[in-house]
Amino acid sequence: MSLLVKAKNLIEHTPYPIGRLLSRIPYSWRLGPVYANTLKDIAEFDKISVEEKKRHIFERCKCILAYAYKNNAFYKSFYLAKGFDPNKVQRFEDIERIPIVTKSDLRAVSLEERSNHQRGRICVNTGGTSGEPLQFYLDRHAFAREWAHMHTIWSKGNYATTDLKLTFRGKNLGRDAIRYNAVHNEYYVNAYISPEVQVQSIKPIARKVRFIHGYPSSVYEFVRYCVKKKPELLEVFRMNLKGVLLGSEYPAPVFRDLIEDQLDTRCICWYGHSEFAIFAPDIRNNLYIPFHCYGYCEAIPDGTEKYRLIGTSYYNTASPFIRYDTGDLVTPMFDKGLLAGFSIEAGRIGDFVEDANGNRISLTSLIFGRHHPIFGQARFVQIRQENPGKATLIVSLSPDHGYEKSEVRAGFDLSNVAIDFSIEIREKPLRSPSGKVPLLVQEKDALRSPKVEIR
Q1: Which residue, among 267, 251, 201, has the nearest Cα to 230 in the 3D structure?
Q2: What is the mean pLDDT of the chain?
Q3: What is the pTM of this model?
Q4: Are 295 and 312 in contact (CB under 8 A)?
Q5: Residues β-bridged to residue 330
Q6: How far, in Å, CA of 251 to CA of 254, rounded?
Q7: How confident is the model at residue 449, as a pLDDT?
Q8: Domains of the chain, first to last
Q9: Nearest CA among 157, 185, 360, 369 for reference residue 260
Q10: E strands present in 273-322
């Protein structure tokens, strides 16, 4: 175990009285000059004209394009097959000539073929909006840039790193109901225990909490429970909270409205994804303003009077994402040819399953809040529930893999969940009537796709 990992583990298990003192250490000291330089870049980029922004975007896109074409086997082959010459990109308007890459394009080759060896790269995975998993690498400075942008957004709600957070982000804490994390001065809440146990553990610290942070669906479930069972806890939060931070899912109005109404505070939301190509704060309900200094964000027509959201990461040389199709549909706003804002047409709305004790568990927590090794092999991961306490994990695998159900089950972290899971292995995923691949499969979706189970 490296000294860095040991130090991180030590800090994560630091008790609150000491951790609150550590929270005073500036992030510019913790994450180094990349964090500080990114904050400066954000501030400067916000002040320049649209034409100057276009110039900066072109220079950054040109740089990552040239790097990928020279050093990345996948992009070299992909562009040659498309008849595309990167040298033809000579101005901002030429960026639209670059072929769009999809998750399916990337998954068609091995992880190493579409990645570059470099010191400190970080392997991550994502299920995405459709439940289609993808593994890739991030460069070693990715999180420093990410936190600079995140803190810029949170600062609009007067957030300070010394503010204590209560965080609902799908953590499995075993027998612990809550656990302090000194790295971000927050108490994690165990997503796999009853709301009553959560409440009893939160009560002693409630007056110290300044922000609630987490998946919209999970925060909504907690607040909804308190409305019915523990209104006195909501009153404590109303007196002390500065805001609620909602990320990793589309903040559906049904979630956001109840949270803001019952906590009498503002929700701060943003659009982002694990591929680290697009970052956009929500300045009002479902109007997102992209950080073009983070990555180039585009909205292109898809031929059906809708627009697809496309992102380019300037800095990820480990596993480049260049004109990457996010799969999300948006309604765009343009300013002199540059995407100035967008509203999400089809986003990441949370779904739930119910455990044997009657607790509703967010699928964002269950599927994407844990590390599941199966994501390295599965084409799609879905879930179906017909009865409380029982559910079926539907895993789409190539027939070439030849996995047994027991092997697939071993690829999931299903510990501390009061649900009896069965496994269904398929060659093709189940689709909704509109042709989408839903994370939570309903009976109507099953009727749309004949069973092609791999034995």
Answers
A1: 201
A2: 86
A3: 0.79
A4: yes
A5: 307, 344
A6: 8
A7: 46
A8: 35-144+273-346 (3.40.50.12780), 371-448 (no CATH)
A9: 157
A10: 279-284, 287-288, 295-301, 307-313
